[in-house]
Amino acid sequence: MKILNLKLLNFRNYEKLELEFNPGKNLIIGQNGMGKTNIVEAIYCLAFTKSFRGSKEEVVIRQNCDLARVEGTILDTYESKYRIILKRNEKKVKINNTNINRLTDYLSKINIVLFTSEDLKLIKDTPNTRRKLINIELSQFSNDYLKVLTLYNKVLKQRNSYLKTLYTNGNASQDYLQILTEQLVELGLRIHKYREEFIAKINQYIEKHYFKIAGIHGLTLLYKSDYNNLGKEELLQVYKKEKNRDIILGTTSTGIHRDDYEFSLEGNNLKDYGSEGEQKNAIISLKLGEIDIFKNEKEIEPILILDDLFSELDEEKINNILTFIHDDIQTFITTTELNKVSVSLKKDSRIFEVENGTVTERGNQ
Q1: What is the spatial distance between Cα 255 and Cα 48, in angstroms, rounded to a whole number?
Q2: Which residue from 67, 68, 17, 11 is spatially nearest to 41, judged by alpha carbons?
Q3: How confident is the prediction along the chain (365 residues), in pLDDT tens digits per residue?
Q4: Among residues 356, 262, 320, which one has the least CA distance to residue 12?
Q5: Cα separation of 133 and 121, whole Å?
Q6: Among 32, 254, 50, which Cα is nearest to 139's?
Q7: Helix/strand/coil (H, E, C) string of 29-66?
Q8: DSSP H/E element including 288
Q9: How far apart are CA 267 and CA 273, in angstroms?
Q10: What are the E-state strand segments in 191-330?
Q11: Label partner for 286 (CA 20 to 30 A): which of 3, 118, 201, 248?
C-alpha cells in the first residue's frame, strides 16, 4: 500500500499544498513549528478521519477558514482517490468521488502504522487511553470490529440511561434492562474475542523484536478484562449481582469498556518498573509486530509513519528499527536533525524541507 500524492486545502498552516511521494522512503525535515508533522498528520487524517495528536478535530482547520480538505491517491491492488472534508462539527468522506455516508464503511481501508512520542501513553496513561489507542490499531485489521464496537457503545449508552431511569422511578419495568444487558453481553463477547485474538497475534512477534532492539527476552502484552474466561450465562450472573449497585451509580460497572492492557517485561509491569528507554522499545516492538500482522495475516504492506523519531531515540536504536523495515514498505520520517540521518537513508529517500509552511524538495545527499 502506498500513498502516491497528497493535496491539502486549509489544513493547519497550509493554505494549499500538493506533494508527490516516493513509494519507498520519504524524509520530511524542518524545525519545530514549521509544519513538517502537519504533513504526516494529514496522511493519518486521510486514513482515520482525525488527527493522531489527540486534539479536537476542528483544530486542523486553518485559522479564519470554514473547512479543511485532504485528498490523496492510494495504490493498493489498484489506485483509488480518497477525500475528507472537515468542517466544524461535521466531516464528509469520499472514495473515487462517491460519497460514503457511514464512516465505518470508509475506515480500515488505508492501513497505517504510526510511531510518535504520544504512543508512550499506551504505557503511561489511563486504561481509557490504552483502550482508545488499541481500538484504533485493531480497527485497521477488522472493519467488523469497528462496527461491533460502535454498536456496543450505543447499547452501553442506552443501558446507562435506563439505569438512571430506574433510580428515579422505582416502578419502571426491569425487563428492558435485561434486554439491554443481554445485548451488551453478546456484543461484548464478540469484541473480547477480537481483542484476545489480536493480543495473541501481537505476542507472536513483539518479544523477538524487543530482543533484537534491546537484547532482552520476556516482553508480553497482557489483556486484562472482566470477560476473561467467562461465558454468556456466567457474565449475566455477574451483571445480575451488580444490578442494584449499577442502578444507584447510574453506570455499568462491568464490561469490555473497562478493559485494560499491560506491557510486562520479565514479569514486571513496564508502567511501574520500566525505564523510559524500555517503554519506548516496547512501543516500537508493538509497532513492528503490527507490521508483521499486516504482512502475514492480510498480505498488506502498511504505510509507516515515524514522527520525530530521531529526537526520541539514539542512533543505534534507530538503525536497528530501520533494519527491520522492508524496502517495500512506504515510510515517512519527520526530523529536525538531518545530520543524524545516515548517508544511505538520505540516498534512498525523497527529501522534503519545510520552512514556514513552504515545502521544497531537496536532492538526495
Answers
A1: 26
A2: 11
A3: 999 999 999 999 999 999 999 999 999 999 888 899 999 999 999 999 988 886 677 889 998 999 999 999 999 989 999 999 999 888 999 999 999 998 888 988 999 999 887 888 899 999 999 999 899 889 888 889 999 999 999 999 999 999 999 999 988 889 999 999 999 999 999 999 999 999 999 999 999 999 988 889 999 999 999 999 999 999 999 999 999 999 999 999 999 999 999 999 999 999 999 998 899 889 989 999 999 999 888 888 999 999 887 666 666 666 667 776 777 899 999 988 777 777 888 888 899 999 988 999 886 65
A4: 356
A5: 9
A6: 50
A7: ECCCCCCHHHHHHHHHHHHHCCCCCCCCHHHHECCCCC
A8: helix 276-293
A9: 10
A10: 219-224, 260-265, 268-269, 303-307
A11: 3
- What DSSP assignment string belongs to 130-197? HHHHHHHHHHHH-HHHHHHHHHHHHHHHHHHHHHHHHHH-TTS-SHHHHHHHHHHHHHHHHHHHHHHH
The CATH class of the 118-299 domain is: mainly alpha
The three cell numbers of residue 335 are 526530523
Copy the grid coordinates of residue 234: 456466567
CB 346 within 8 A of CB 319: no
SS3 state at 317: helix
Under 8 Å between Cβ of 87 and 93? no
Question: Which CATH number among 2.60.200.30, 3.40.50.300, 2.30.30.30, 3.40.50.720 corresponds to the domain 1-111+302-365?
Answer: 3.40.50.300
Count the neighbouring beta carbons within 10 Å of the beta carbon of residue 306.
Answer: 25
Where does the chain hold its CATH 3.40.50.300 domain(s)?
1-111+302-365
Cell of 136: 484504533
Residues of the chain with CATH 1.20.1050.90: 118-299
Is the pTM above the cut of 0.85?
yes
